[in-house]
Write a structure and sequence with these properties.
single chain, MetI-like fold, 2 domains, 18 helices, disordered N terminus, ABC-type maltose transporter activity, MetI-like, cell membrane, transmembrane
Length: 436
């Protein structure tokens, strides 16, 4: 027994001499810190992986970063877009390398800390089992993360970098080389009269469109959901099926049909309704105000079924005891709606309703398919019904003002992300997530 205690004290002394700082410093050369922790196989694997990365990618990353700075040197031979793409890939690979390099140092430090506290280094079989258990979730999300980086993050970074170049129709590679211009595009957007006027007109209409169209579709959906949920209404299943039908039809088909119905010359709305009643036709496609009214009505038609389905499910989940208690207290219909129905519906659906606003803010389909953002407005580079996203599309594919489109896209992304984050933070369902 005395001998055992003596050995335990000796182990504790040895463990106290194991220094985590030394392990972290040795990990500056990947694998040496793990070897210091007597995890030789893990250290060897890390050293080989990092050495292979350095040998295979150092030249590629160096050339890519250099090209990102210069964007090419010989016109008609160097394509600045390729240099920009390679530079972004180099940044991504560098970020990967630095992330794993830091994790390598942290891993050696944590293992050394555990050894210092008396942890026994596992054998090879236990090490493999522990590594598999810990890395299995990362193996599952790895392919998705890879796609996210190269399908979402890479194009997003490419767009952000374009906003700081002079890439437009008159300076397009490979005939010309791109140059870094700093914040010149953003300054142009807010100082040149044509760009400033167009931007603020389009932004104001985008905000009006988002608020009016989304609020009307939510209000109509709530009205119909409450009405159909009334116990006195019969044939509820049939009515609900009919009200869901606009959602079942593909949106682009509905928009194209409505564009024909609203046509100034042969549309049924003018010929069969407006002209017989009022003796004149409404210029639905040639007057900006009339076009805006038309697309708001179409969006309400397209958008209310989804919200109606949400509200219907929530209303059916509200306990009848609440309403019975309100009846006993002498509450009228409006009081029951204001204090029971509306709070329950908003609490359960607030995040999805916020996404309705964010979705309509970027609702390209209806703007483009109905009238291509028209009618044209004199002195503007955008049409009378263009919202920010459709204006960006026109600048990119019609006018080839890639730099200005990228700059506006950055502003658009900040607006949408800021609005969504602010509203999510304020919603009760976000605040009370995980509380019971």
């Amino acid at each position: 027994m005395a001998a055992t205690n003596k050995n335990d004290k000796h182990d504790l002394l040895v463990n106290k001499k194991h220094n985590p700082t030394v392990a972290a410093l040795l990990s500056i050369i990947p694998g040496l810190g793990q070897a210091y922790n007597k995890r030789f196989l893990k250290g060897a694997a890390l050293f080989i992986l990092f050495a292979a990365f350095v040998v295979a990618f150092t030249e590629l990353i160096s050339a890519g970063l250099q090209g990102l700075v210069t964007l090419g040197e010989v016109p008609r031979e160097d394509d600045s877009r390729i240099f920009l793409s390679n530079g972004i890939l180099s940044l991504i690979f560098t970020a990967f390398f630095l992330s794993f390099y830091i994790l390598n140092i942290q891993d050696a430090f944590k293992d050394a800390k555990r050894i210092q506290l008396g942890w026994k280094v596992p054998n090879i079989r236990e090490g493999f089992r522990n590594a598999w258990d810990n890395s299995f979730p990362y193996l599952l999300i790895g392919p998705g993360l890879f796609l996210l980086i190269f399908v979402v993050i890479f194009p997003l970074l490419f767009m952000v970098f374009l906003a700081f170049t002079n890439y437009n129709l008159y300076n397009a590679p490979p005939r010309n080389l791109l140059e870094w211009v700093g914040f010149e595009n953003f300054v142009t957007l807010f100082t040149i009269n044509e760009w400033r006027t167009t931007f603020f007109n389009v932004l104001s209409w985008t905000l009006i469109w988002t608020f009016v169209a989304t609020t009307l579709q939510i209000g109509l959906a709530l009205f119909l959901a409450v009405l159909v949920n009334d116990p006195r209404v019969r044939f509820k299943k049939l009515i609900r099926t009919v009200l869901i039908l606009p959602w079942a039809v593909p949106g682009f088909v509905t928009i194209i049909i409505f564009s024909a119905l609203f046509n100034d010359n042969f549309g049924a709305i003018n010929l069969q309704i407006i002209e017989p009643l009022f003796g004149q036709r409404v210029p639905w496609l040639t007057d900006a105000t009339a076009t805006r009214v038309a697309i708001i009505m179409i969006q309400v038609w397209l958008g209310f079924p989804f919200v109606y389905a949400l509200f219907t499910g929530v209303l059916q989940g509200i306990s009848a005891d609440w309403y019975e208690a309100a009846d006993m207290d002498g509450a009228n219909r409006w009081q029951k709606f204001r204090n029971i129905t509306f709070p329950h519906v908003m609490f359960a659906t607030a995040p999805l309703l916020i996404m309705q606003y964010a979705g309509n803010f970027n609702n390209f389909n209806i703007i483009y398919l109905f009238n291509q953002g028209g009618p044209a407005v004199r002195g503007q580079t955008a049409g009378g019904t263009d919202i920010l996203i459709s204006w960006i599309y026109g600048l990119t594919f019609t006018n080839q003002q890639f730099n200005m489109a990228a700059a506006i896209s950055i502003i658009l992304g900040i607006l949408v992300a800021g609005f969504a984050f602010f509203q999510f933070r304020r919603s009760r369902s976000f605040k009370e997530e995980g509380t019971f």
